[in-house]
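Example 5.3 — Enoyl reductase (ER) domain-containing protein
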Amino acid sequence: MASKHQAAILPQKGGPLSVGERTTPEPGPNEVLIQVKAVALNPVDYYQRDFGIPPVPVYPAVLGCDTSGIVAKLGSQVSGLALGSRVIALASSFFQHGSPDYGAFQQYVLAQADGVIPLPDNLSFEEGAVFPLAVMTALTAWTTVGVPLDTKYSPQDRQAVLIWGGASSVGSFAIQSAKSLGFTVYATASPKHHDYLKTLGAHAVFDYRAPDVVSQIVDAVKKDGVDLHIAHCVVNEALQPTLDVLKETKGNGVAKVAHSPILPPDHPTLDNTEITFNYPPMDPAKRDEHISQCFHGWLQGGLKSGSIVPSPGIQIEAGGLEGLNPALDKLRAGVSGIKIVVPI
Ligand SMILES: NC(=O)c1ccc[n+]([C@@H]2O[C@H](COP(=O)([O-])OP(=O)(O)OC[C@H]3O[C@@H](n4cnc5c(N)ncnc54)[C@H](OP(=O)(O)O)[C@@H]3O)[C@@H](O)[C@H]2O)c1
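Solution (predicted structure tokens):
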């Protein structure tokens, strides 16, 4: 008889999630079945629970993207992972036509092997869960603006980037990845996070609530003598000040902005500036290759060398699968410099 497990199921648009039983799936050739130990929460999880945005193709659905856990079964073509080993996994039904077998919020989940890597011994399951979607979004921003992930600028290249929203989950990995590619990193955040973001690799951090924040950044860039024509706008309603900075720093060249929140149709623009919604390739083969580069390349390498660390801070919420609704409500109410993680 097929095995069963508990899952936080979204029965219909508007939620709430409700804990129930599901049949445990078998992994396909390039898939891994993971016993979930911790999940991290992302804004898309409550958007889908509460508003059905982005569209949920199949109900009942299982939401969630970020997991860490233990390898329970391996597909026939998967190499480099051992049964019973600890892993970090991008587990999302997003690229699986909404199939609930692939959503993180359950005790056993399927994940594509491209997005599964070993969890280092020095990290807890809770720490491991913070990486997947935030790392992939931070790295996808680079390819969105035409910067390959194997870029290695040296200080003599004087290449700079602006990360608007550095204390967010995605922003913290935007900073870590920018540093690893060799950029001089300018970021915005509330003042209480400035020192921390410098430890992640920011060269200078600015209070986005300061009325003169744009001129502060422009002055610093000019004083440092670096070339700033690329930005990652990580948070909502930050495109205008991002463009205001680029207008003064890009010179006559083309500027490029990766925008992580959905771009409103009437968004601001700037001459000679490409503004692109930050999203992985639509072509499945190219997307798989990109995911593999993000996880098996950048993240696994960075964790091994110790140059990449869990970020931002972690707030653990209790209650397991039953605790997901109140934990998502807390995320929806707003967080500052923390990732909410729920042990399962
Ligand atoms: N395109 C994609 O595929 C994709 C994937 C994942 C996420 N996203 C989107 O990316 C965005 C970020 O997600 P997340 O999980 O990283 O968010 P998050 O961690 O929940 O963001 C919270 C942080 O946003 C910062 N913030 C809010 N308004 C700001 C502003 N005007 N200027 C600077 N910082 C501001 C706050 O900074 P302080 O604490 O410093 O005040 C806070 O720490 C969301 O819109 C999400 O939907 C898109």
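Remark. The mean pLDDT is 97.
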